[in-house]
Amino acid sequence: MKTTGILTDSHSGISQEEAGKLGIRVLPMPFYMEGKTCYEGIDLSREEFFEKLRSGIDVSTSQPVPQDVTDLWDEMLKEYEEILYLPISSGLSGSCMTARAMAQEPEYEGKVFVADCGRVSTPLHRTVLDAVELAEKGYGAEKICRILEESRENMSIYVALSTLEYLKKGGRIKPSVAALGSILNIKPVMQFGVGTLDIYQKARGMKKARKAMIEAMRNDLTGKFKDAYESGNVYLLAASSSSPEVTAEWVEEIKGAFPGMDVMCDDLSLGLCCHIGPDGLGIGCSCRPDGMIDQL
User: Fold this and answer.
1) SS3 content of the chain, % helix, strand, coil (to 5)
2) How far apart are CA 99 and CA 94, in angstroms?
3) Cα dist. 278→45, 131, 160, 164, 274 in Å?
4) In the chain, where does DSSP find H-type helix?
5) Most exposed among 55, 136, 227, 296, judged by the fewest C-beta atoms under 10 Å?
6) Is this model's pTM higher than 0.85 or not?
């Protein structure tokens, strides 16, 4: 029997195909379209999703059914002695805390460890890759969980929205503010912290929003992440709910702003796109947790 199995959810941006190559599992997260439960990559394509979203169909997100989660744990525990589960941040979804409660049940205690890394999208994807690397180095699930949670603050991400409409639907802004933003071509730049989503800046047009995000990232890299940045221990990240062409253009713009740094880019999960909307672009960074290992 293998030692440590790694599980995440689809809000990480990791596809089932990539999961197979990494030797991990991905739990599909549900969302609702006109009251019907759908799962990313299973019930409809990305193109179909955005077509329906733009048409005005009601879309909402939900936690996974607890039975679906424990069924997957049971399946993995036939192959692994223990499981490390890396779900979406508890600050953005109740699914993390629900999983933590279930992991305390007698049949899972000491076998399933749920890490609340405070992350989502590409930062969560990167954290999963860090977990895989740590597992390959021989660290067990409990210690990896501790390493990742203690480094959760060492990341940031900014996302520019093309429209305020979906924030309005989610109740985060008033309809009058969304209407005014549309008239003035306001593109809000949102900042994801550890489990939080706040408005960082409002820009007139996506071009200025991109510039604002790159400047914000430059400030982070030369400020709070200076030591990790100068020692080459920062991953540069990107995310998108836009077209492949616009996404590729955005990645090249980031590379031009930060010469010599690789950029890892993911499509935002469909569950996140329910709130972000189409044509969103993001930039972020995550520090390597390896430097903390000797301290634990």
Assistant:
1) 45, 25, 30
2) 9
3) 14, 30, 11, 11, 9
4) 16-22, 46-54, 66-77, 95-102, 121-136, 141-150, 165-169, 175-184, 206-222, 226-230, 244-257, 270-276
5) 55
6) yes
Residue 234 one-letter amino acid: V
Q: What angle do CA 132, 248, 50 make, to 5 degrees?
A: 85
Question: Which residue type does 93 have?
Answer: S
**How would you classify the pairing of strands 2-9 and 80-86?**
parallel
Give me the phi and psi of 162, to 5 degrees please. -80, -25
Q: What digits encode the pLDDT tens for the residues 34-56?
A: 888 888 778 888 888 888 888 88
CA 191/CA 212 separation, integer angstroms: 11
* 52 or 193: which leads in pLDDT: 52
N residues, the chain: 296
Q: Indicate the DSSP class of residue 40.
A: B
Report whether 237 contacts 228 (CB < 8 A): no
Residue of 125, 99, 116, 158 lying closest to 11 (CA atoms): 125
104 Cβ neighbours under 8 A, 6+ residues apart: none
From CA 196, how far away is CA 182, in angstroms rounded? 24
- How many whole angstroms separate alpha carbon 258 and alpha carbon 238? 13
- Give SS3 for 96: helix
CA dist., res. 262 & res. 96, Å (int): 30
- pLDDT band per the 50, 70, 90 thresholds, residue 221: very high
Give tens-digit pLDDT for 239-289. 999 999 999 999 999 999 999 999 999 999 888 888 888 999 999 999 999
CA distance 226 to 245: 32
